Amino acid sequence: MNQGKINLQFELINQTKYNLKKRLFLPLAKNILDKMLSQSLKDKEIHLNLFLVSAKRIKELNKKFRQKNSTTTILSFPQDEPLKNKPLSEIIVLGDIFLCPQTIRQKNKDKKAIYFFFWHGLLHLLGLNHKQMPKYQKIWKRIKKTIL
Length: 148
What we know:
Helix content is 43%, strand content 20%. It has helices at residues 22-36, 39-42, 55-66, 101-107, 113-126, 137-147, and strands at 7-14, 45-52, 74-78, 91-99.
């Protein structure tokens, strides 16, 4: 594999009426992973799924997995968490991010807010918690300027 090139297997499953394309999220994901992962992790095959779901569906998931009977903007379901745990194989399965574009748009005036929530979810999949995230705000600002 080329050194520094992220081998990302990325799936976007859009179950909404919103016209959001894989090509809008893929460069963002690669950029984030390039900045966050060590070289030894970049050389692995990385898997990530992004689901865009309705308010009804995210509410169902929120109730099932967090026991909260309300809609939310994002849910993340991490698997390998490579910043927390040393991956044991050549494949890193980051996990699944569920975004609700409808809820995101209701709560945010910025039309690009969905990308912030995607970034937020990706940090969770990498193994970071909310207390660790503020120190990565500078990375988000740089990424936002260059990609969005």
